């Protein structure tokens, strides 16, 4: 059940009418539903019921808010992190270090050392030199790092080029053809316990076929590595499952994904790791905004809202579609372009789209904004950093403050040697 519903003609987040949040917190503001988050966590876990040994690590890059992470930690989720900052966040949110997986193509030596010091469960090594460095650092600390080698299976994920990660030309992982030799050299290093492989072919995947093709290649690699005498106990299948952004989008369900995984990996006899992000958080959040002005355009009017590309970057970056609905729809429709106040033409959420009729002062939301929304926000144009609210039934709390432009400015200084 969707926890963003109209009641008496007013859009609610669980039991909270969104106009109340707009009035008390101001706009723009991200609003998350705890119930939806918990339901998605449960649905994804249930979808893997036929996978005997598994661990789920939420890809916290998609929504690293501490309140959100705490909800998922309570659901038994670990974290997939890609920086020292994310690592500290996951721990601060209550995730067990053992349940943390450290991915990322450019980990620094300091970040590798931090992971060891914190006792994280697994490092996902992206290339040989990183593995060598990790082994050296671990050895110096008289520790052993548990690691897997990320392989690049060279499959076309069929998603936006900027979020595709498993083609040979992408920067991630090592080529699957050279993986056995690199794995062999790393496995021989003291300080490193190479226990398996990882892959992640891209995000917002709307077909299971490329995932299945990649997993089959991974299965063959596991067999080859075992044949070469390696003990393979862990395979990290990454994340990537898409979510519906448009009302008629129909991506594979977690249950279909789980069934495919169970079938393809049936004989692997490993612990499977999963790194879902968007499928857990995407539909748990909306970006609540106020219409500032409706301005005539050459063809259709511009609806100028108080949210902008600095608050929700996905449309500007990937031409991504986010459904836009009025908080108090009148039943009337209009065709308009939805734009923000930032001084870039790219600050456009929708072009010539049929939407609920709105006028200045009305509230509206961009849907499916719980993943890669607030986390990618900036203060461009000296706008405030957008706040976040978590709703739980008939109560809500601000889980991230609005950070005013003045606060950002206070962290800057003018050199006294400029007269
Ligand atoms: C290594 C890794 N794991 C997991 C994810 C999460 O992906 P998604 O949000 O598409 O599930 C990403 C981002 O695409 C990633 O780079
Ligand atoms: N930021 C991207 C997803 C990136 C996935 C990162 N591995 C998006 O908003 O769709």
Automatic annotation (TrEMBL):
Sorted UniProt keywords: Amino-acid biosynthesis, Decarboxylase, Lyase, Lysine biosynthesis, Pyridoxal phosphate
Binding-site positions, substrate: 278, 314, 318, 344, 372
Record-listed pyridoxal 5'-phosphate binding positions: 240, 275-278, 372
EC code: 4.1.1.20
Orn/DAP/Arg decarboxylase 2 N-terminal domain mapped to chain residues: 37-281
Orn/DAP/Arg decarboxylase 2 C-terminal domain: residues covered: 30-370
InterPro entries: Ala_racemase/Decarboxylase_C (IPR009006), DAP_deCOOHase_LysA (IPR002986), De-COase2_C (IPR022643), De-COase2_N (IPR022644), De-COase2_pyr-phos_BS (IPR022653), Orn/DAP/Arg_de-COase (IPR000183), PLP-binding_barrel (IPR029066)
Enzyme superclass (EC): lyase
Essential cofactor(s): pyridoxal 5'-phosphate
Single annotated GO MF: diaminopimelate decarboxylase activity
Modified residues (N6-(pyridoxal phosphate)lysine): 61
UniProt-listed Pfam families: Orn_Arg_deC_N, Orn_DAP_Arg_deC
Signal peptide: none
NCBIfam families: lysA
UniProt record similarity statement: Belongs to the Orn/Lys/Arg decarboxylase class-II family. LysA subfamily.
Function: Specifically catalyzes the decarboxylation of meso-diaminopimelate (meso-DAP) to L-lysine.
Complex and partners: Homodimer.
Name of the featured protein: Diaminopimelate decarboxylase
Organism: Sphingopyxis granuli
Lineage per the UniProt record: Bacteria, Pseudomonadati, Pseudomonadota, Alphaproteobacteria, Sphingomonadales
